[in-house]
Amino acid sequence: MKPPIGPATRLCMSLAARPGTFGSRFHNHLYDALGLDFVYKAFSTTDLEGAVRGIRALDIRGCAVSMPFKEDVIALLDGLRDSAAAIDSVNTIVNDDGTLLGYNTDYSAVRALVEPLARAPFLLRGSGGMAKATATALVDAGFAEGVIVARNPVRGQALAAALGCAWQANGDGSRAPLLVNVTPLGMTGADADALAFTRAQVEAAEVVIDVVAKPIETPLLRLARELGKRVVTGAEVAKLQALEQFGLYTGVRPSAAQVAAAEVYALAA
Which domains does the chain have, with CATH numbers? Predict the structure, then answer.
């Protein structure tokens, strides 16, 4: 068991427009299992600059960054590391003695999950920070003939051009063996019943990836399973990216059994 919370306890946190429970439960479960004097808390904010100043001022060890802050936070940091620098998207801040460095563990999580898949053309819906990480991971892993589907022409075309992909504003008439949703469509709330791709597109696909972590089974994934397609869930992405964050914050690598237990606990909420 970890020590009682006290002056020496290190705080980690997350910033999101719609905070979830996965990260808090995953990290705090591992702190308990490993006896680490850490605590993790999810936050939302309407003052991103003030929140980042607080990370530095209060010596908060680490911060996960979710929609819609993954790009805007870059200007507030002291530097970028690894893939964050290449794709201009940050999902993790590490505070090293007052120096705030940005990382992107979304990229490495997606890259690991798509490695076993057959290389094939893909349709990816989305153009934000998570879409950048996901699309870049696919292209770097050898997936070619990608199409970025995004209603925002400026962001969509910029992402497509950067990766050598095509761009479509709607994309409902297109087909591809790999479908990837990187939008809030299917997430709890106003978009809970929305399908990121049409039934015809899912019928024509072989693999469907949905990075939405809650609910675990989005409408898109339920349809894909009904049609016998291979799926990759947002929960799988969330686990791998959170595990890398955990290592960056604590310097500790949990066992596979500890990670599995933390995942089950995190998804039970």
Answer: 10-103+236-267 (3.40.50.10860), 108-232 (3.40.50.720)
